[in-house]
Amino acid sequence: HLTHHRDQFDVKTEQNPLRTQTLSTRKDFYERDFPLYRQPVEVGSFSLDAQRRFFNDRRQMRYYVEPDKNPNFDLKDGYRDRYIKRDENVKEKLDHILRWILANKGTLKSKETTDSSRSLDFDFVTWRGHLTKLLTTPYETREGWLLAATKFNGTIYISEVETEAARIERENRPERNKEMMYWGYKFEQYTCADTVDSLPDPSGVVNTNEAFCTVVQTRLADHKLLFSGEVDCRVKDPSTPPPACYVELKTSPEICTPKQRSNFHRFKLLKWWAQSFLPGVPRIVAGFKDHDGVVVSTETFLVSKVSQLIKNEFNCWKPTVCMNFCCDFLSFVKRTIAENDHSLVYLFSWEPYRDVTYSLHRDSQYSFLPRWFIEGMSG
Ligand code: 0WD
Ligand code: CA
After folding, report:
1. Closest ligand to residue 46's CA
2. Does ligand 1 lie within 6 Å of residue 132's CB atom?
3. Euclidean distance between CA atoms 182 and 74, whole angstroms
4. How many other C-beta atoms are found inside a 10 Å radius of the C-beta of residue 186?
5. Strand order in 283-289's β-sheet?
């Protein structure tokens, strides 16, 4: 049996043949039938306003206005004088999702739940972005990750921890990269309207505190999942229900050579597919920009058609590998976390070309479930 040390506990020193202490991320290991992934259902949504305040409603939802096939959107416009940037030093962890759960716990509690030790009928609660990182792990060669996991009332909460490498990169971001991060948000402003009968207003301020997030429920094999993801906008047609109405907006360098097209398929489309497939967002609208930050063409990608698009690439990524790895990682987390204890954090860590490992931390800096959530769920 595992014994708990006070802080960092190196699992490799523990000899227990009954437990696998690491998880392989080799692609070939996950090439089997596509696992069951139930159609994601939106169970709620929330908004974060210009001051990053939480609202249990859809006030930040925006409407997609189809751009010209060959527009001339200048993404540089407003960077100096009409840009309010979210403070990246503030680590929000799962807080917004937890606030949403508390605000909706009355309607969330399943009547069929027989397990009385569990107040939520979910195995996992996390951000969609964390699951995207898991989906792309078997193909990732550059950036590792750290995922903190805690079991509370029978549900495992997973929250990302910034790696040292990511922090160093963030703190030393070149000015050009900072500006290019703005370009993505500016593209949203050119293509999204605030109301169903208005038009986009590119003369306004870009404020990255604002967000509209969908909360979806689904199941991956035997894992019941509840996660939230930020959604850019929806189509105006009111007869299309969420999440099928949502549109993901992206920008990417314009494609001029076969090599660039191949790289776009092999690397960019993997990330785009994983992110939108998870919550059931059916379409991605890409704005292709030149070196000078001007969108020169747009193209719609149907998420359901992406795997056909990439089939001709040699040695390309496979959706089944992504989903099977994610599924096996969640199983690994389930069998690793035995105890229901919100002060205990299992820190799963991965670096490219390595296996996933973990360490144990009690009452450490990694604990992430706030007191207001623990008390609110117990009351
Ligand atoms: O505390 C943390 N470690 C994180 C918090 C990491 C990731 C996200 N978040 C929170 C924020 O509250 C944000 O509102 O997640 C929300 C977005 O979550 P998500 O949908 O699960 O994340 P992801 O799929 O990675 O990103 C979706 C969009 C991005 O759009 P593009 O097209 O670039 O993928 O959310 C934005 C960005 O516009 N975004 C973020 N916004 C706030 N904080 C963050 C972030 N850390 N990362 C991406
Ligand atoms: Ca986007």
Report:
1. 1
2. yes
3. 12
4. 23
5. 73-74, 294-302, 283-289, 246-253, 233-234, 63-64, 192-193
Q: Measured from the CB, is residue 99 less than 6 Å from ligand 1?
A: no
CA angle 130, 136, 138 (to 5 degrees): 125
Residue with tokens 């949502």: 246
d(CA 116, CA 95): 25
Amino acid at 158: I
**206 near 73, Cβ under 8 Å?**
no
Tokens 């959604």 locate to 231
Instruction: Tell which atom from ligand 1 comes closest to the C-alpha of 127.
Output: 21
Dist CA 350 CA 243 (whole Å) = 31
Q: What CA–CA distance (Å, rounded) separates 266 from 257?
A: 14
Best substitution site from 127, 273, 277 to test ligand 1's pocket, by max atoms within 8 Å of Cβ? 127
Q: Is 96 in the pocket of ligand 1 (CB under 6 A)?
A: yes
The answer to whether 44 and 100 are in contact (CB under 8 A) is yes
> Do residues 50 and 207 touch, judged by C-beta distance below 8 A?
yes
Each residue's pLDDT expressed in tens, for the chain with a length of 379 residues: 344 433 323 344 444 545 569 999 999 999 999 999 999 999 999 999 999 999 999 999 999 999 999 999 999 999 999 999 999 999 999 999 999 999 999 988 755 555 656 789 999 999 999 999 999 999 999 999 999 999 999 999 999 999 999 999 999 999 999 999 999 999 999 999 999 999 999 999 999 999 999 999 999 999 999 999 999 999 999 999 999 999 999 999 999 999 999 999 999 999 999 999 999 999 999 999 999 999 999 999 999 999 999 999 999 999 999 999 999 999 999 999 988 999 999 999 999 999 999 999 999 999 999 999 999 998 7
- Identify whether the C-beta of residue 366 lies closer than 8 Å to the C-beta of residue 342: no
Main-chain dihedrals φ then ψ at residue 294, nearest 5 degrees = -115, 125
- Mention every residue, 6+ apart, whose C-beta is less than 8 A from residue 295: 67, 71, 72, 73, 75, 187, 190, 251, 287, 288, 289
From CA 360, how far away is CA 355, in angstroms rounded?
A: 17
Q: 236: which 2 tokens?
A: 């105006």
Give the residue, by CA position, lying nearest to ligand 1 atom 22.
129
Which residue's CA is the closest to the ligand 1 atom numbered 13?
230
Nearest ligand to the CA atom of 275? 1
